[in-house]
Amino acid sequence: LNTIETLISVMEDQPEIVASIQPTVLQVIGHIFTQGVMEFYEEALSLVYDLTTKSISHDMWKVFELIYQVFEKDGYDYFTDMMPALHNYVVIDTPAFLSNQNHVLAMYNMCKVILTVDSGDDPECHAAKLLEVIILQCKGHIDQCIPSFVELVLQRLTREVKTSELRAMCLQVVIAALYYNPQLWIETMDKIQLSIPPTESISAHFIKQWLHDADCS
């Protein structure tokens, strides 16, 4: 697998050669993911990244579906390894990413799992970053997703945040949503119901939470 990755890297400026070997490489990747050969997940995900840096073929979108299935089956252990490829799927061919609402839903579902369970700061930072990238890259096309994205990170901020990096990443999602559409952002913030005392405003609650996090750091 490392040899294949090296070959793709060397040939990255010759797309016709990469395209000619892609079907063979995809057979290997498909076998690893469908058979659950976890010891090769990291290498396979690196290959997916290499094959999506310039363009994303129809078959590579099928691989995206396999990656989502791997996530659902094997949990969040490999999310950090998935992140470079997931980033490519959003930014390299954004129109294709948006052409199927299941693409956006799959990304959101993965981020939701990471930010809801105790997955650790590193995966959580990656999940928040992915949400931010989607918002900024898809400006004007995912209005229906913004409330869910914002509520997800705000809910995460109601729980203990152990690092300033994670807190900053979550806040950047909220800021990205404000940039995306200020009016939609205001409407979203007005509607969000968080598990905080009804006598306390959202802003007051987060100030208290941030002070608590600072004391714990």
Automatic annotation (TrEMBL):
Membrane spanning residue stretches: none
UniProtKB keywords: Cytoplasm, Protein transport, Transport
Single GO BP term: protein import into nucleus
GO cellular component entries: cytosol; nuclear envelope
Chief place where the protein resides: cytoplasm
Subcellular localization, as worded in the UniProt entry: Cytoplasm
Domain of life the protein comes from: Eukaryota
Gene3D superfamilies (UniProt xref): Leucine-rich Repeat Variant (1.25.10.10)
Annotated PANTHER family: D-IMPORTIN 7_RANBP7, IMPORTIN-7, 8, 11
Full protein name: Importin-7
Organism: Triatoma infestans
Taxonomic lineage: Eukaryota, Metazoa, Ecdysozoa, Arthropoda, Hexapoda
